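job 3f2a | input accepted
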Amino acid sequence: MSRQFLNGLSLRDAYTFSHSLDNTPQELESNSGAPPDGRNYKAWYGNSDFDIPHRVALTYVYDLPFGRGRHFVRDGVLSYVFSGFRTSGVYTFYSGHPFTVNEGGARNSALDAFGQATAIPNVVGTTRIVGSPDCWFYASVNKACQPLAPGLSDSFVLLPAGQVGNSERNTLRGPDTSVFDAALLREFPLGERTNLEFRWDVFNLSNTPEFGQPSGNVSSSAAGQITTLSGDPRVMQFRIAV
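job 3f2a | predicted structure (242 res):
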């Protein structure tokens, strides 16, 4: 949906819902891995590694109301100083990527000597999402989880090496992404057809951390921890263009 310029303001928004299912890991930086039984890909059917159900984008462009022909500071020297400014911005939100809870590399090798299988635990209860970078989902093996979510119990338990649990592929999701990028620019006319533009861009204006995926390895003391970022902190750039 879009709204054309009204008193110098233009707005546009878009919402996308999608859902993707498959049984094959994607060639991404991190993926769900191969199924526990390499001959049974049907059992590995679930959310795609790139599945993002919800995506929202809001954009605006606003000609600031200062200077000649505007509502404020129309005359005098200040009208030249403050005229020609425009600001714009984009707010983006999208759901977190899915990930698979697993039992780690050593147990993968117990299922496949080449380490291509994914060992999965048993599910024994409802998964508790704590939502902290130190403990995204509750796992007692991660000592940071206990003070953040006291009284909870594990929803996944390890099995003896070589056994396959009943957990499924890509059942949990990592952090959502919410970021706002903005720009401030000013144009100076150079004749009738050409403008000189000064532009200041600020990406991730609020400097909000964009966290990566948590560790899904419940055999590790880092289970549920997030140690990476999926995006940059605040970044600024200044450009001049004709």
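job 3f2a | Residues 2-241 form one domain.
job 3f2a | closed
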